Input
Amino acid sequence: MAANDSAGSVPEDPEAPVGEPSQEDKLLEEMSVYETRWGKQKRVAEERRRRLLWKVPVNENDVATIASECELDLRAAELKLREHGGDVESVLRAYILREVEALKKLHPDDVENVELGLTRKDVISPTKIALSRVES
Output
């Protein structure tokens, strides 16, 4: 007799009919359905966002400026510019703010010398301006 055979056990037949699914199987099935549904919603939202961004007009010179100043390739620079409504100043402020935050993390002891006084409120976008005008 083999070492793994015990007196009372029956070897499992992989083609034997399966009874009711276990809790784990039910949970895995629910997660699969959820991920499928969530993935579809996420793709639809991303497609809508992409279509809206492509409607924003941008100047090729502005794209080149953003690419050189923010150390990005042209495609990424164009996307950043579109995300900020074509406002070069807003993109540059956001870039500076991101760089300052990175420097603060690298040099926590020297934060007062890294701080430029730039806050998230200083990153202006046309969307924020339009919303503030509507609220007024």
